[in-house]
Write a structure and sequence with these properties.
This protein has 17 helices and 13 strands. β2 and β3 form a beta hairpin. α3 runs parallel beside α11 and α8 packs antiparallel against α15. The radius of gyration is 25 Å and the shape is flat. Bound molecules: adenosine-5'-triphosphate and magnesium ion (MG). Magnesium ion binds next to loops. Adenosine-5'-triphosphate binds next to β1. Keywords: ATP-binding, Nucleotide-binding.
């Protein structure tokens, strides 16, 4: 099936199947659309026929926005009914505070757990509704940041507000990249821990797949919005910050974020494939470019490069739409109104299918460089390196419709993690779902140690293993496996 039909059916199944309170509101939209929303029924019909994809960024839908906002805030009322108890959340410190949302770290005195509070003044509550979309749509919280609770009332900077509470995570991928890799916790040493990038990517894709299955596109996935938490030996990743998220097929006021922006984002109808691009950019960053792009050049160069690609795509899409419009204008259609509608539909369809700039200067050379640039971690990947490169290149396909879905990629990455990381232990998972320890594990460790240049040495305390560029003295192969190859455990 084409991505177009997938997106359409995903979102209609969301509207039909997701058992949540907000869905009741989303549901009603179809059944009781007031006449003012459809000022031009024939045009709507024509557009619906001619463009198989949702036109999230089409100006035509502007009139529908206020209605959608009303519905979201009604969903929010239902979800955030309980009154906020100021005394319950103590030791508050501001993490980030914009005009719209304030993010505070705090402790929940009732549960004694560290939490994060996201608050919006009453007039801006609709922005919180966006943040709450994963919770409202019952997206699994395993790898998506869903709210633990939401309250109404409470005063923020002197103004009445709504408050959503979240489990507090240890930090973001960006915070990790902003400081040199820490030796102390081998799992966080993204430069040498080959499983870091794979596990991060696998969990991100699982989170995205869950989000996309509900018809929700994040639109702002980047290293600052990927949260990490140590749970015993397990490193958990969650996709966070749904402030710019949109439902496929619904009207959408949010613009995509610029940090990991996909080439087509904002130029073609909203597609989950744009999140897959952003995930690919993070994989590229951590697996291949972390040192150079982040530490030396800073991430601005990286962001500018993506913005330029996005602009170039926009120009290509606009040119394709203009060509389709003028071709449509030559078709004899009796009434002016229908001719206009036909032209609009043709232009929208051409936009959706627009080819990206054919040989976008830096891009092809970037892909050519992949195997070389990805060398530091690719060497750990051994014979799996080509497969990782293929997946990376597929996620970064210039044409959005060629990118694989997050759910397909999640399965591929799960397989890589299983092969490469030997064992993945997730707290709370029963033994049945755990990946069993296989008899070949020791053999695999020995092979990888040889590939990584480990040698056996001796000192007063006995024998130890060491490798070039790493001052650690590993006392056993088990220690090497635990610290570098296993999931930290
Ligand atoms: N659950 C959480 N646990 C720990 N830290 C969090 C959590 N949620 C948010 N943060 C921190 O707060 C910052 C801002 O949160 P978020 O990205 O959701 O809001 P934002 O409106 O996008 O703000 P910003 O523009 O600063 O990214 C994050 O970058 C992260 O450092
Ligand atoms: Mg953010």
């Amino acid at each position: 099936a084409s991505k177009a039909s997938v997106s359409t059916s995903v979102s209609s199944s969301v509207l039909q199947a997701a058992p949540c309170r907000c869905n009741a509101f989303l549901h009603r939209r179809g059944s009781r659309q007031p006449r003012w929303m459809v000022p031009w029924p024939p045009l709507l019909l024509l557009l619906a026929r001619a463009t198989p994809l949702p036109t999230a960024h089409n100006a035509f839908w502007g009139s529908v926005l206020s209605r959608a906002r009303f519905e979201q805030s009604a969903a929010l009322d239902a979800f955030c009914g309980e009154a906020f108890d100021e005394a319950r959340f103590v030791d508050r410190t501001r993490l980030s505070g914009g005009v719209v949302l304030a993010v505070d770290a705090a402790t929940d005195a009732q549960t004694r757990r560290p939490v994060v509070l996201k608050r919006a003044p009453e007039g801006m509550a609709i922005h919180l509704a966006n943040e709450l979309l994963p919770s409202l749509l019952n997206v699994s919280g395993a790898h998506v940041m869903t709210a633990a609770a939401c309250f109404r009332g409470g005063v923020l900077d002197g103004v009445s507000s709504r408050v959503a509470t979240y489990e507090r995570m240890d930090g973001t991928l960006k915070q990790l990249l902003d400081r040199p890799p820490r030796e102390a916790d081998a799992r966080l040493n993204y430069e040498t821990h080959a499983c870091f990038a794979l596990q991060m990517m696998h969990q991100t894709l699982v989170g995205l797949a869950a989000t996309h299955a509900r018809g929700l596109v994040n639109q702002d996935l980047h290293a600052g919005n990927l949260l990490m938490r140590r749970e015993g030996n397990y490193l958990r990743w969650r996709v966070a910050d749904f402030g710019r998220a949109c439902l496929v097929n619904a009207s959408c006021a949010q613009r995509p974020g610029t940090q990991g922006i996909a080439p087509e984002a904002g130029h073609v109808p909203l597609t989950p494939a744009s999140d897959v691009w952003s995930a690919g950019v993070m994989f590229l960053l951590v697996r291949c470019f972390a040192f150079e792009m982040w530490h030396r050049n800073g991430h601005r160069a990286h962001r500018d490069w993506m913005s330029r690609l996005n602009r170039a795509y926009g120009e290509a899409a606009a040119a394709a739409a203009a060509r389709a419009r003028s071709a449509a204008a030559r078709v004899p259609i009796p009434t002016e109104r229908e001719r206009q509608a036909f032209e609009n539909a043709a232009a929208a369809a051409a936009r959706a299918r627009a080819a990206p700039p054919a040989a976008w200067d830096n891009f092809t050379s970037l892909l050519d460089m992949l195997p070389k640039r990805c060398a530091p971690l690719a060497q750990h990947a051994g014979h799996e390196a080509p497969r990782e490169n293929v997946l990376l290149a597929a996620m970064l396909a210039l044409r959005w419709e060629k990118r694989p879905s997050a759910s397909w990629l999640a399965v591929e990455f799960a397989d890589l993690v299983r092969r490469r990381c030997l064992r993945a232990r997730e707290p709370g998972k029963s033994n049945v779902t755990q990946i069993p320890r296989r008899p070949g594990d020791l053999e695999a460790v020995v092979k990888r140690m040889a590939a990584d240049g480990f040698v056996k040495n001796r000192d007063a305390r006995g024998s130890y293993y060491s490798r070039p560029g790493d001052a650690t003295m590993y006392r056993s192969r088990a220690e090497v496996a635990q610290r570098l190859y296993l999931d930290g455990g």
